[in-house]
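Hey, sorry to bother you again with one of my protein questions. I've been puzzling over a protein and I'd love to understand its fold better. Take your time with it, there's no hurry, and the full record follows here:
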Amino acid sequence: MPNDRKNEIELSETYYWDHFSYILHYVDRHYLFLLQEAEIAFLKDFSKLTFAAQCLYLRLASRRSTCFRIEKLNYPEIGELATPLQVLRMSGFLSDVSDGVESIFTKQECVSLAKKLGIKIPASASKEEAAALVSSADLIATFSTGVVAPLRMEVFAFLQFLFFGTRSRDLTDFVVRDLGHRAFVEVQEDDLKPYFTTRDEAEQKWAISMWREWFYTTSVSADEILASWRVNLMPIATELLEPSVRAFEKTCYALGRLLEREKAYLEALEVYEVSLTGASLERRVRVLQKMGELDEAIAWARVGLELCVSPTEIHFFEDFLAKQASKKSIKQVTASLKQAELIEISPEYIGQVEAGVVAHFQAEGYYAAFTENQIWRNFLGLFTWELIFADRKEGFHHPFQWAPSHYGKESFAGELPLHLLEDRVALLSLLRTRAEANQGAMNPLVDWYSLDFELMERFLQVMPTAGLAAICQYLWEHLGTHVKGFPDLFIQKGDEFAFVEVKSPNDHLSAIQHFWHDFMRKNGVPVRLVRLKYKA
């Protein structure tokens, strides 16, 4: 189980200032050369603020709201707020606002303001509807001591973006870590490397991230979204820089799917055409098939077969091409499922079929446990711990990474110590030691909640060395595509053991499951595929 450090940590009163100061120090050290005038001015002006003003700005800028009622602000660690408010106003970090602030008032307050305007708000009205009826800034001013909004918010967000390399993380990551909700492998500050090496890299990913946020929150039509994509994102496709590739691909895929749902197939193809990911290629083939453009669909399926490494993606292209060649072809996965053994379980296990099969095998004298992907991931994660985190001067950009940024890519290397598989007693001891030393620390493979050393010991007692080595080596070389699809259960009775894939009456076998079943059998690891039937 993960460490419970929550009771051991007491945050300082101004913990948020400590965290932002860490980011500013990092930016000053690694990114000063690529900062522009607005960011340099922010750093200079912020450093001149009083400590109280800095704290107040961080409090307001870190909240979701864009404006705040002064009488509602209360930060005991800062004390009285009149002076820091004035300092922030004078320094260009805060402004008084009056227009469009009705939404920050409660419905009852909006009703009171409306009465002064002679407007009656129905009791059934929502807060938003009530706020929309209140538009007099003068009346709001008489009701409130003032409304303020933090300024320079884009620069504030951009500095954090430089530190994290993404818009999806912010100062709250520090708090989550400090409270013990997440633990990370420690990397020294001197070993952290900047995510971006040029201003162009940072600006490009920032632009993609901002557009993507707009895409997921906007209420405009699909046509308007596509028009915006053509202007703002499509030109980037020809000059895409490495840090932006994944964000760009995911954004294009999401837009393409939206256009497909709108049955705008030509437009969806236009978006998919700038991407060569397996997911986008598959959608392109499917759309072309729907449009009756089979020759073109077949051509792109062949491209997909050449480019893709994921079993699921490869299976789609293989199956598509096979179907075009012979309409009578039967999927390998379907044929495999037809040969599955049949097991009867009680109807009480409807909805929890794995538990029913565990009970079935336990009644036959087997040790049986639900494992699916976790026994393999947990084993490999502990087995390769030193390889994953050995070079902490490469691929770590901030303290909140659970693996190097190049984890799972071709550049992520390291030879597995397969000789350790020969002595299972020593190996199990090594795994226990690593688990104890790193308990709760984030690892891309290890799930601390499912880590079970009784299961691990039984697993290592019976797994053939050659088979274990082959599976670990293949998984290690294909971390980006093959970490799923392992059988549901592990059963063992003495030297007899097997991995068991459980399929309910209407369930199907996926391509990645079929791949691992076949790979395991070829390497001397028994796999049993069972279909369920409920007892009458």
